[in-house]
Amino acid sequence: MSARTEREARGPVRAVLDAAAAGIPSVQGIVAATGLPRDLVEATVDHLVRAGRLAVPDLPGRCVSAACGSCPLAPDGVPTCGAEASAPR
Amino acid sequence: MSERRITSPLVPSCHAVSVSDGEEGLPVVALAGAPNVGKSTLFNALSGARHVAGNWPGTTVEVVRGLWRTRHDAGPDLALIDLPGTYSLDPDSPDEQLARTLLLEEPEEDRPAVVVVAVDAAHLSRSLYFVAQLREQPYRVVVALTMTDVARRRGVHVDTDALSRALGVPVVEVNPRQRAGTTALAVAVLRVLDGPVQSARPVATTAGDELEAADERFAWVLAAVDRAASHPPEPRRTWSDRVDRWAMSPVTGPVLFLATMFLVFQATTSLVAPLQDALGRLLSGPVADGLTTVLGWVGLEHTWVRGFMVDGLLAGVGMLLTFVPLMAVMFVLLAILEDSGYMARAAVVTSRAMRFIGLPAKAFLPLIVGYGCNVPAIMATRVLPDARQRVLTALLVPFTSCSARLTVYVLIGTTFFPAHAGLVVFAMYVVSIALVVLVGLLLRSTLWQRIGDTPLMLDLPAYQRPALSLLTQSTWVRLKDFLRTAGGIIVATVSVLWLLQAIPVHGDARFGDVPADDSLYAAAAQTAAPVFGPAGFGRWEVSSALVVGFVAKEAVISSWAQTYAATDGVSTPKQLSAELRSDVSHASGGHPSAAAWAFLVFLLAYTPCLATLTTQRREIGLRWTLFGLALQLTVAWSLAVAVFQVGRLLT
């Protein structure tokens, strides 16, 4: 069965969810795997994230400037790395 | 459906513009749609200055209401409401709930007469989901197609007539910033107002099945977009895509990741070893001599102060500082991998491995952070939505090999396996990954058999050449952290250690002038040493460092430096290595390699540091923290004993 026919049988949301569950990590990869238009894949991903069915976390960046406020892993902008994390608050 | 008359009073804001009372009793047109599609710009274009903002009664949501003078063919004025931006009628916020309430939950006679949905032509599928939902209700709907100029620049062309036929509602192209299309929009709205309410589109889904409903809606959207819009072809595969084919493959991805990390450790240890010893000789030679001379000027050369400053602080902290070049090189190499974009691909490989062994895919984030430092890694478990996932991941984080342990790996590697130090360090990281997997599987199969998971997607950055300025800055920030730790907790630990080594237990020794075996420190260490006998390193001089390491792993090296400075006058890394080799050889009955591996495994698996325990207590509670502590010590001791007992049979 071609990717498009298979996708049509499953529905676009299920196709995207199945592709993500199979480990395809990017929109580009899902477009290639499902044959769905990029615009629809992006919209479906957004919808699944809002529905809590898919997670698109920010990758932790380097603490180049110890700008913990912009770090996705810094709760409430509080420093979390190294000695800062152990410092009394 | 009769026209809606808005009679509910709005609470005007202090910036309200007064609106003619003539708005009462007019047909109500609601302007709806996703955020950032030009809806508010359209509202302003239609209502001009004739609007007022205020909280909708009973809510904290601000709604803007205005007057739309259509001026077409003597048509009526219309009351216009700018609803809060919403992607769908399944609310995710108070704003979206208000939109849903007004459109679906109010009695029919109180709903807007017409809904104008602003649809972004450059992101049709995202905008049309709302239309798909709205069309499941009998409603008068008009689509205002915005951002068509942006769409055209991207190669997207929309046939409004075809889209109108596909959606079953009028579609009008508008450009609110240039006030284009507003007359055509007025014509379309007045025409539908004059006509009957459009019937709902037929939908056949199972009630309550959200996924099926979303599938049906997106399939409907796809059919409409297929008929009415043309998109540019997908870009050709770039060289970045070709690299990713290998970097993120389920087979070659992990191999490439392990090979990369091996090269990092190999390069780090082979480049830095000569520097390290030179630095040690500098500190134990000219610096120690200089400090002694200065103390002599103030008459303290032959006092306990000299012992504290030279044999305590300088020996302990100084030995740790000889690892600064090593840490710097490793940080530079890791920064190169991060800035190039490769580490994001490594994260994909890792997350896939998490799911393969039944752990939540998102758990890879805290675990990756743990290879830097366990403290922020445990705090990072907050990204996991489920409490059980957070506890499970927080219990696994201590088994990730933080950068503080690296200094000890290198010392042990260069001491016992000098030709293969890089391989030893690499092996410890592989063991760490294996421990995370095995302990994770153990906990999953016992405590958390049914733990949910959410598939994961990642925004992968493009591959790029690392920027020198960023590499320098990143390396300096991390080195500064390492030095701050050395200057803070290590100085404190070294001071306490020296004090314990300066207090005599037996005999007539003076304070600060105690034979090493006779000190309070040695007495305490000797009580714990037998525990490590089965693991091959039961001598107090060796095993006591693990107790000190409970405070901070960097202190392990400082502890050895101080202990051997006191016992044997050791002052350089080479001398320290020689003493360690001798003591471990004796303790292990002539099997130093097996004992060294056992020591490394224990160091990896037991409690990282007090800060980690404190953070765990805060994030997962005392009960789970104590469970984790028991788990770490049990795994560490059991594995260390097993490694030594099997290793000595093989050597």
State the gist of this model.
The complex is a heterodimer of chains A (89) and B (651). Helices cover 49% and strands 0% of the residues of chain A. Chain A is built from 5 helices and no strands.
Descriptive overview:
The complex is a heterodimer of chains A (89) and B (651). By secondary structure, chain A is mainly α. In chain A, 49% of the residues lie in helices and 0% in strands. Chain A has helices spanning 3-10, 12-21, 27-34, 38-50, 82-86. The longest helix of chain A is centred in the middle third of the chain and has 13 residues, at 38-50. Chain A is globular and about 25 Å long. With 651 residues, chain B is an alpha/beta fold. Chain B has helices at 39-47, 94-105, 124-134, 148-153, 160-167, 182-194, 210-228, 239-247, 252-297, 304-321, 324-339, 342-356, 364-370, 374-379, 387-396, 403-416, 421-446, 468-502, 520-528, 540-548, 554-568, 573-587, 592-605, 610-650, and strands at 11-12, 28-33, 51-55, 62-68, 78-82, 114-120, 141-146, 157-158, 171-173, 229-230. In chain B, the strands form 2 sheets. Chain B has an 8-stranded mixed sheet with strand order 1-3-4-5-2-6-7-9, with helices on both faces. In chain B, strands 8-10 form a two-stranded antiparallel sheet. In chain B, β3 and β4 (62-68) form a beta hairpin. In chain B, α10 runs antiparallel to α18, α16 crosses α17 and α18 packs across α21 (554-568). The longest helix of chain B has 46 residues, at 252-297. Classes of the chains: A mainly alpha (89), B alpha/beta (651). The interface between A and B is large, with 55 and 71 residues.
Q: How large is the radius of gyration of chain A?
A: 19 Å
- Main sheet makeup of chain A: none
Tell me the Rg of chain B in angstroms: 35 Å
Number of extended strands of chain A: 0
What class do helices, strands and sheet pairing of chain B give? Answer: alpha/beta
Structural class of chain A: mainly alpha
In one word, what is the shape of chain B? Answer: elongated
**Span of the ends, CA to CA of chain B:** 90 Å
Query: Numbering strands along the chain, what is their spatial order in the largest sheet of chain B?
Result: 1-3-4-5-2-6-7-9
Number of helices of chain B: 24
Helix percentage range of chain A = 40-55%
Helicity range of chain B: 55-70%
Overall mean pLDDT of chain A: 69
Largest interface chains and counts: A-B, 55 and 71 residues
pLDDT < 50 runs, ≥5 residues of chain B = 1-22
Oligomer: heterodimer
Largest sheet of chain B: 8 strands, mixed
Distance between the termini of chain A: 60 Å
- Shape by Cα distribution of chain A: globular
